[in-house]
Write a structure and sequence with these properties.
single chain, 125 residues, alpha+beta, Arc Repressor Mutant, subunit A, 2 domains, three-stranded mixed sheet, two-stranded antiparallel sheet, 30% helix, 21% strand
């Protein structure tokens, strides 16, 4: 975890980050709040939003913006498949080596996010 020397890692931040790194469900802030509240009953939804914003700004989590923002603790380069029917988000583990560390005319790629949209297998049934 990249931490500014002046910033301390709070128990709240650690629990939120640990939760996001332990799930593949891409939870919304409200879902993060409900899960973290089990361990931290006094935490507020506002605090969860502030911590998520801070973690995103530091590059420690990804934000996937669809109708409602969802969060991903896996910051490794990977794509996401978003079902247009149920709105569930799935990781696409394909690697895109052509993009990694590639130099383009406009600059060097350090990271990327790719979104695929369609209907998931469950909704097609």
């Amino acid at each position: 975890m990249i931490i500014n020397k002046k910033e301390r890692i709070t128990n709240q931040k650690k629990i939120i980050l640990d939760y996001l790194k332990s799930t593949k469900n891409h939870p919304s802030a409200e879902k993060v709040y409900k899960e973290v509240k089990k361990k931290l009953p006094r935490i507020s939804l506002g605090t969860v939003y502030r911590i998520l914003k801070n973690l995103k700004e530091k590059g420690e989590i990804l934000e996937i913006s669809i109708e409602v923002s969802h969060f991903d603790g896996d910051i490794s380069p990977h794509g996401h498949f978003i079902c247009q029917k149920c709105k569930k988000i799935y990781d696409v583990e394909e690697k895109y080596p052509v993009l990694k560390q590639k130099k383009l005319k406009v600059g060097e790629i350090k990271n990327y996010q790719i979104y695929f949209y369609g209907i998931c297998k469950k909704c097609k049934k």
